[in-house]
Amino acid sequence: MVALRDTHEASFDFDSWAAKLNLPEEQKLKLQQCHEFVVACLHKKERPASDIKAMSNLSAEIISILMTLNMDLDSLIVAFLYPAYEAQALDLEKVEETFGANIKKLLLKVKDMEAIRFLQNLNSNKSTEAQVDKVRRMLLSMVDDVRAVVIKLAERIAVIRAAKNADEVTRLSIAREIANIYAPLANRLGIGQLKWELEDLAFRFLHNDYYKEIARDLGEKRVERERYIEQFVANLQKLLEDNGIHGAEVYGRPKHIYSIWRKMQRKHLPFSELYDVRAVRVILDSVEDCYAALSVVHSNFAHIDKEFDDYIANPKPNGYQSIHTVVYGPGHKVVEIQFRTKAMHQMAELGVAAHWKYKEGGGLGSGVEQRINWLRKLLAWRDDMVESGALLDEFRKQVFEDRVYVFTPRGEVIDLPTGATPLDFAYQVHTMVGHRCIGAKVDGRIVPYTYKLKTGEQVEIITQKEPNPSRDWINADNGYLKTSRARAKVINWFRKVDYDKNVQAGDDILEREVARRGIGLNKDQVASFLKEKLSRFNVKTVNDIYAGIGAGDIKINQVIAALEERVFKQQDHKELELQSLISEKTNQQLLNRTNQKQRRIVVDGQSDLMTHIAKCCQPIPGDDIVGFITQGRGVSIHKANCPQLRGLIKKNPERVIATQWGNEASAEGFTVTIKVVASDYSGLLRDITTVIANEKINVLGVRSHTDRQKDLSIIDIDLMLVNLPALNRVLTKLREMKQVRSAARV
């Protein structure tokens, strides 16, 4: 019951081939036209008779495969033309003239599929633009017309069927390409009928000894096994009929050698202990019938609980749906049974190849839609991935690495997204396994929680008696959990933890994060600022914010953003005036500037009005400015985007007046305040003012306060500057100081 086929003989007789396939008359005439067209083109290119026979046989083989998938006539025509076109023996203009523009278009799309070969030995750093362009065209072709990839997969099957006559190097090269690229792609597209054969044929060439051993084991008791299955099928058919389930199609299903080998490897079992060597499939009319039939089977046969899988309720990543169960049949022999609807069967066997049949019928099944939507995503990658390596990496990741399949110590398969960790695995097995996890082993060795699982690994979770998840697992940046589902389970756990513990934990988390980011606030200041933000977090007290952080309901980054926003706007009230650092000369310069401002700022077209620079935003020449008429102090000059100005305008819009910098705006210099945050040490202020003095910049004033808990000094310094480059230079120099955390204009 091994599903492998023989290739055609070396010679090719179109009439005999057409008769064997029982082609409808329309298809026969069109394909005969293709055959004659290809032969004429090959003769014109002076190709030898052996080439003509080989290409005709290959075309016929591809068509035979496509017909089992119910592909349309255009697909069959393109399949007949493709081998000769790939051999550069066809003129595309002649193809269009003879068969039409649609055939030419589809033929080119199949040609685009050859770009998938670049994924065989992918090296992101060495990918050429030509390779990337070909992959982009391939993606577009797959999205635009799924028939192109189906035809290419069929062509690969035809090629590997014929590879038994090739030399060993060629056979192995073809087999590796199919095992690594085309079989996974067929699986991703849900075309089981092609996937199985691609896998088995590649396996035969790559691991011939294992292949022969399993084939021999299957063949030894084949007659006895087939007789048993035949009797089991008859009994099951009658059992279903007697229980009111009519019209079920029950039959023994062929076993695929590669899947048997994979299961032996995965479960560490010899052939004799496999459960599903005897296999039966039941095709029914509806989902309800599937579950009814399952109930009948479980009521009449003892079943093995751990071998039960409901892929109808929980489809596989590629959309596959069926119910799998294993029962003890007559003679206590193990039989695997699959239940599925007719639509599910068609989707499992044909995948996206069913797209055109459904399309013609006016509606798509959900399985087809899922795969077609995945293909459409490829088009978005084509536009988004600009760099060579990114495009190729992403395509291979999505086709071959989008899921990882790992095993429990009992051999059960756990399906997880790429990047999943042992903790994701633990929570997938059971919520309490995750909560009680204190360590993990992968293939027998201890690994960290952040270890990225790989397909085929066996994972063992080490647990303790009492649940004790860590709050650190919630933070995605820490890399403990990949899946949002697992993270939600951790969050739900901490929601149930005592409120006071959440408050304390949240307070500690926030304190650590404030220190890590160098925000110069003590605990009282943090609490005071958060009190102003209660409505923002939809809570009633500051403790509610801490509890939210501790429980994972409030993201720490949201709270930090609110604090940084508040700190940026605040004005320091605890100022330490260090006028000893201000020279008499500098004080005199500051006084003289009052009489010179009229030449620096033009208000409503006049340069002789009394003005002053607003302390809240301290605009400098080059900033967009707006004037606001004050009572008794002339016109206050603000930055156009000053938050305080917005409040003034809202109350007294009539006081706003057009203002701009005059020609002498920068000639007399301007005042700027900078804020320096640095680790506190003796001599810090001296070192900072020395850097400023070396840049020949005058200090007008200094205000400082110290965060004793964090050992940080926050210093505001008023500077007299001649131009903006001077400001940029001094800020750069300050930031280069070892103890300085930040230096910026206020």
Automatic annotation (TrEMBL):
<dbReference type="InterPro" id="IPR004811">
    <property type="entry name" value="RelA/Spo_fam"/>
</dbReference>
<dbReference type="InterPro" id="IPR045865">
    <property type="entry name" value="ACT-like_dom_sf"/>
</dbReference>
<dbReference type="GO" id="GO:0005886">
    <property type="term" value="C:plasma membrane"/>
</dbReference>
<dbReference type="GO" id="GO:0015949">
    <property type="term" value="P:nucleobase-containing small molecule interconversion"/>
</dbReference>
<dbReference type="GO" id="GO:0008728">
    <property type="term" value="F:GTP diphosphokinase activity"/>
</dbReference>
<protein>
    <recommendedName>
        <fullName>GTP pyrophosphokinase</fullName>
    </recommendedName>
</protein>
<dbReference type="GO" id="GO:0008893">
    <property type="term" value="F:guanosine-3',5'-bis(diphosphate) 3'-diphosphatase activity"/>
</dbReference>
<dbReference type="InterPro" id="IPR043519">
    <property type="entry name" value="NT_sf"/>
</dbReference>
<dbReference type="Pfam" id="PF13291">
    <property type="entry name" value="ACT_4"/>
</dbReference>
<dbReference type="InterPro" id="IPR012676">
    <property type="entry name" value="TGS-like"/>
</dbReference>
<dbReference type="Pfam" id="PF13328">
    <property type="entry name" value="HD_4"/>
</dbReference>
<comment type="similarity">
    <text>Belongs to the relA/spoT family.</text>
</comment>
<dbReference type="Pfam" id="PF02824">
    <property type="entry name" value="TGS"/>
</dbReference>
<dbReference type="InterPro" id="IPR007685">
    <property type="entry name" value="RelA_SpoT"/>
</dbReference>
<dbReference type="GO" id="GO:0015969">
    <property type="term" value="P:guanosine tetraphosphate metabolic process"/>
</dbReference>
<feature type="domain" description="ACT">
    <location>
        <begin position="673"/>
        <end position="746"/>
    </location>
</feature>
<comment type="pathway">
    <text>Purine metabolism.</text>
</comment>
<dbReference type="InterPro" id="IPR004095">
    <property type="entry name" value="TGS"/>
</dbReference>
<dbReference type="InterPro" id="IPR012675">
    <property type="entry name" value="Beta-grasp_dom_sf"/>
</dbReference>
<keyword id="KW-0808">Transferase</keyword>
<dbReference type="InterPro" id="IPR045600">
    <property type="entry name" value="RelA/SpoT_AH_RIS"/>
</dbReference>
<dbReference type="Pfam" id="PF04607">
    <property type="entry name" value="RelA_SpoT"/>
</dbReference>
<dbReference type="InterPro" id="IPR002912">
    <property type="entry name" value="ACT_dom"/>
</dbReference>
<comment type="function">
    <text>In eubacteria ppGpp (guanosine 3'-diphosphate 5'-diphosphate) is a mediator of the stringent response that coordinates a variety of cellular activities in response to changes in nutritional abundance.</text>
</comment>
<dbReference type="Pfam" id="PF19296">
    <property type="entry name" value="RelA_AH_RIS"/>
</dbReference>
<dbReference type="InterPro" id="IPR033655">
    <property type="entry name" value="TGS_RelA/SpoT"/>
</dbReference>
<feature type="domain" description="TGS">
    <location>
        <begin position="402"/>
        <end position="463"/>
    </location>
</feature>
<dbReference type="GO" id="GO:0042594">
    <property type="term" value="P:response to starvation"/>
</dbReference>
